[in-house]
Amino acid sequence: MIKGTQLYDLKAGGWRDLGMMDVMQIFGRAGRPRFDKSGEGIIITSHDKLAYYLRLLTSQLPIESQFISSLKDNLNVEVTPHNVKEACAWLGYTYLFIRMKMNPLAYGIEWDEVLGSWLARHAAFEEDKLNLSSGGSPMQ
Q1: Domain boundary assignment for the chain
Q2: What gap in Å lies between CA 31 and CA 41, rounded to an integer?
Q3: What are the DSSP E strand ranges found in 35-131?
Q4: Which EC class does it fall in (predicted)?
Q5: Burial, 87: exposed, middle or buried (Cβ in 10 Å; 0-12, 13-18, 19+)?
Q6: Are 90 and 78 in contact (CB under 8 A)?
Q7: Strand, coil or helix: what is 106?
Q8: CB 55 within 8 A of CB 62
């Protein structure tokens, strides 16, 4: 049972909401793990936080990657890129890459950049479709 969803954060000097990982950890321990096949969790919160925790518990809130904060270190440790292309290919296999495509604004990518890259991809697609890149004519 979680009674109240706010914690006092000394570093921030104020109250903060209980995070998703904390709630999932507490509820993950509901019941007796070796004896019960299921458990129950109860959360008591204010009415204005109810919708947030319902979305959280029904997995309707996306989980954003925190990898970007340690990206430089991981590139140095995991990959010894001989070129930028190799590093970009490696990055393409990460959850960060997936989330950046789904929610670029959350990772500091400006809306103009998002729109610009979409327009560039769309223009390249149309150019390929019309066979202009190989010197062909759209009428062929």
Answers
A1: 2-57, 67-129
A2: 9
A3: 43-44
A4: hydrolase
A5: middle
A6: yes
A7: helix
A8: no
State the pTM of this model. Answer: 0.44
Residue identified by tokens 């998002």 is 114
Compute the distance between CA of residue 122 and CA of residue 45 in angstroms, rounded to an integer: 46
Counting every residue written for the chain, the total comes to 140
pLDDT in tens, the chain (140 residues): 888 888 898 998 999 988 877 887 777 766 666 777 777 778 888 888 888 888 877 776 677 888 888 888 877 776 665 677 777 788 888 888 888 888 888 888 787 776 666 666 656 666 666 654 455 544 44
β-bridge mates for residue 16, sequence order: 7
DSSP state for residue 49 in the 8-state scheme: H
Strands (DSSP E) contained in the chain are: 2-3, 6-9, 14-17, 43-44
Rounded distance between C-alpha atoms, residue 89 and residue 125, angstroms: 21
Instruction: For 98, list phi and psi in degrees, rounded to 5.
Output: -60, -45
CA angle 125, 104, 91 (to 5 degrees): 80
Distance between CA 17 and CA 5 in Å, rounded? 6
